[in-house]
Each structure stands twice: as structure tokens, then as C-alpha cells.
Specification:
The complex is a heterodimer. Chain A is of the alpha/beta class. Chain A has helices at about 20-25, 60-75, 75-80, 95-105, 135-150, 165-170, 185-195, 245-260; strands at about 1-5, 10, 30-35, 35-40, 50-55, 85-90, 110-115, 155, 175-180, 200-205, 220-225, 225-230. In chain A, α2 crosses α3, α4 packs parallel to α5 and α4 (about 95-105) packs across α8. Chain A is elongated, with a radius of gyration of 22 Å. In chain A, about 40% of the residues are buried. By secondary structure, chain B is mostly beta strands. Chain B has a 5-stranded mixed beta sheet, with no helix packed on it. Chain B starts with a strand and ends in a 5-residue tail after the last strand. Classes of the chains: A alpha/beta, B mainly beta.
């Protein structure tokens, strides 16, 4: 009968039980998961069952993780994502969450840039840990991304982005993400990237402060190669701070827009 | 002079630069991206970019936070 073992389709003998199979394929596994449920006792197996054996603390190698991702994303989609490069300008609330989403789906190469260090107040929405306070955000983020998917290539730049270095650092990207805090810096990046790095799409964020309704955050096409995420008006200001839920919604709009662009789909 | 701004037709009596248009619309030129006939302008080009009849303009405004 046909079942899936660790996401790979496999033929096994009829009547095989879960524990018999475990002894055959991974005798040192600590955990057997059958169709999503951790099993403490033996169980008969049936056609179409999904079995995962896990040894605690053992990390899959690059090929194994790749096979798992390909199975999740369908092989064609995964192969396309893996070949791509995405640039992320700014590693705050938007940038750190976009980077994590893209690393999880296996984007092959991420280029991240930020001049800031992790501050205590960042922990309300940014993807850092309390023991990373004081580290450059790009270094802390690189470490966190590597703990999620060590096979994604990360290039990091600990510097302020300018009209001079943006085309140099991000000239090779397939899709660019703007994840700055300041409105004039967003404008500078849009002008520089879209006029100097020709033909590549830019996904930006504008208007995601506070705790207004989730569904006012939208993805729109704002110019030929410019996609804009947010409600367009809710600026961060005293009394309307940036908070994890709504910033996260905007960040994942951006990440999904990137994914759709990488796969040749329109984000808006 | 007829120009299209963010998909809407607009009429202007006098000649205008991009900078003058932004002033008329009371927009902060440091917080916008401008696409003029499918070409994105740099900030330092706003003063010298003269609008002409039939131009198609996208004005994208940004607010802070991220």
C-alpha cells in the first residue's frame, strides 16, 4: 500500500503497523506521528496514511528540508522560490516579519539592510528576543533566520541606506521590499529604487499604526512597479503607536505580495 | 491643460512643474513618489519637471510607521 513517510510517498507491505515501520526505517526515532497525531501506542496503517518519525534534536540536512518544503509547496513552486533573491530595506516591525515569512518558505537569498540596533521598545512588534537587545538588527535577524532555515543565504548590511548605495546593494534582487519607519525615507527608497534599478517591483508599506480594523489594510498597485500595503493614512504618532498585530498584518500582506510576484502573479 | 492624476482627469489653466503641482495640492514633496508617464522621478527632478497636456501622473503618498 502507498503511504507517506516523512512527506515522501512510499510503498510498504500491507498489514505493516506503525511500530514495525518505525523499526524498519528509523529505529532511533523518539516520536511517531500518524496523520498529525503523536502516537504512544502501536496502530495498524492504511492506504494514504501520513507518517512522520522524529528524533528529538536531530536537524534535517539541506536535502531533507528541501524535500519537506517541496512537498508542502508543490515541487514546481518550491523550485522557483529557491532560485530568487529578495531585498529588504529596514529590519524593524515590517522587515523582520517579512524576512521570517520569506525564509520559512525557502526564498533562496535574502539581502537585509538596517543601521539600527535592537532596543527594548522594539520587542512589542519586531521579531527579536530580549537577549538580543543592543545587537545590530541585521545580525540578530540573520541569527534568527538561520535558526528557522539555515539553508537560506543571508547577505546583511549594517548601514544607512542612501540614494548612492541602494542601487549597489539591491541591484540584483528579483523583488524589493521597503520596510522603513520614516515617510521621507520611504519616498527616497521608492524614487531611488524605481528610477535606478529598472524593471523590478517594489513592495512598500504605508499606514499600519494603532489598532484600527484589520481589513482596512490592503494591497494596491500604486504605480507601474510599485505595490503599496496599508490603510494609506494611519501614521505612527503619540497616541497611535505601532503594535504587533496590525504591523504583522501589513508585513504579511507584503510577504504575500512578494511571493505572488516571484511566481508571476499580480499581488493586487 | 488636461492631465490625469491617479486615474482622475484634472484641468489646470497655467503651466505647472511637478513641484508647483504638489504645492497646489498641499502635498509634502519629501513624502511622495511621483510617476510621470510611467517614469518615476527623483526628488531633485521635481522642480524641473514641467507638466504637459495629456500627461499621466501617479502620486503616491507615504505616512510614517513600520
Amino acid at each position: 500500500m502507498k503511504i507517506e513517510i516523512n512527506e515522501r510517498p512510499t510503498d510498504i507491505a500491507d498489514g505493516t503497523t506503525l511500530q514495525q515501520l518505525q523499526r524498519q526505517v528509523t529505529p532511533d526515532a523518539d516520536l511517531a506521528i500518524l496523520n498529525g497525531f503523536p502516537m504512544k501506542t502501536d496502530s495498524p496503517l492504511a492506504e494514504g496514511d501520513r507518517v512522520v518519525f522524529i528524533r528529538r534534536g536531530l536537524q534535517p540536512n539541506a536535502d531533507e528540508l528541501e524535500a519537506l518544503m517541496a512537498a508542502r509547496h508543490t515541487p514546481g513552486v518550491h523550485a522557483r522560490i529557491k532560485r530568487t533573491t529578495v531585498g529588504i530595506a529596514g529590519c524593524g516591525g515590517l522587515g523582520s516579519s517579512v524576512a521570517i515569512a520569506l525564509a520559512r518558505i525557502g526564498v533562496g537569498h535574502l539581502i537585509i539592510a538596517d543601521f539600527d540596533v535592537v532596543e527594548p521598545s522594539n520587542l512589542n512588534r519586531q521579531q527579536y528576543f530580549i537577549d538580543q537587545i543592543g545587537l545590530p538588527k541585521v545580525e540578530a535577524l540573520r541569527d534568527n533566520l538561520s535558526r528557522i532555515n539555515p539553508y537560506v543565504r543571508i547577505t546583511h548590511h549594517f548601514e544607512r541606506l542612501t540614494p548612492v548605495n541602494i542601487p549597489e546593494l539591491f541591484g540584483s534582487v528579483d523583488v524589493m521590499v521597503e520596510a522603513f519607519d520614516e515617510a521621507d525615507q520611504k519616498a527616497m527608497l521608492a524614487q531611488t529604487f524605481l528610477s535606478r534599478v529598472s524593471g523590478k517591483p517594489l513592495v512598500m508599506g504605508s499606514g499600519m499604526a494603532g489598532f484600527g480594523p484589520s481589513n482596512t489594510v490592503v494591497t494596491q498597485r500604486a504605480a507601474t512597479n510599485l505595490y503599496l500595503v496599508g490603510d494609506g493614512e494611519t501614521a505612527a504618532r503619540p497616541g497611535e503607536g505601532l503594535m504587533a498585530p496590525r504591523v504583522g498584518i501589513a508585513a504579511h500582506h507584503q510577504a504575500n505580495a512578494v511571493l505572488r510576484l516571484l511566481l508571476g502573479e499580480s499581488p493586487a | 491643460m488636461n492631465i490625469t492624476i491617479n486615474g482622475q482627469p484634472k484641468q489646470f489653466s497655467a503651466a505647472l512643474t511637478v513641484s508647483a503641482l504638489l504645492e497646489t495640492l498641499q502635498l509634502d514633496s519629501k513624502r511622495v513618489a511621483i510617476e510621470l508617464n510611467s517614469k518615476v522621478l527623483l526628488l531633485e527632478q521635481f522642480d524641473a519637471s514641467r507638466l504637459q497636456d495629456g500627461d499621466v501622473l501617479e502620486i503616491v503618498q507615504f505616512v510614517g510607521g513600520g
